[in-house]
Amino acid sequence: MEMELKSFDDGWEKIHAENEWGRxxxxxxxxxIARNFYKRDRKAVKIxxxxxxxxxxxxxxxxxGFDTYAFDGSKSAVKKxxxxxxxxxxxxxxxxxxxxxxxxxxxxxxxxxDNVTVYANILDxxxxxxxxxxNMLKKGGNILTVVFSKNTDGYGKGTEIEKDTFVDATFxxxxxxxAHYFDKESITLxxxxxxxxxxxxxxxxxxxxxxxxxxxxxxxxx
Length: 222
Description:
By secondary structure, the protein is of the alpha/beta class. It has a seven-stranded mixed sheet with strand order 3-2-1-4-5-10-9, with helices on both faces. A three-stranded antiparallel sheet has the order 6-7-8. A hairpin with a 2-residue loop joins strand 6 and strand 7. The protein is globular and about 45 Å long. The chain starts with 10 loop residues before the first helix and ends with a strand.
């Protein structure tokens, strides 16, 4: 019997159902979108919010006039996103879906935004997700992906199930079901092996209640 593809951990449903967070977009996403797409015909630019959570970036993209798409494995997250946009009369194609089971067409999106979603998986699934993103992007399309670095305080906590992947990983006050940590070299190599080019990896480091959080912010093109 063929094993069913599934990456979504039900622990994320509990997190989204019990917490109110992720209401406003992050600065690096706003900056990336502004630099690459503000001067284009926004209604003609298709952008996917890969793992939308409570809808911060979906709201931002729709509000800025882009042809916006979003999904999340959490029904609670998608419901919150729909309600968030509905209050302002904003429109987007929003779905409940596992990240390994997306049915968007190939060569469809101008841009895919992954703000700390792909990282929350084992490495084989992460590779498959990036390969799927590559296929969904138009030639010359852009990806912005944000992952946690090994300098984050959560690295090494929880149970290591493969190299650099931990279950019950801690990020300040939140414990996530699963997390894979990167360095700039490993995320750059992975994306280049898939076929991405013009890869630029930058680091953003801050503290949250004394906990060090370090993101690797990566942009690339197909």
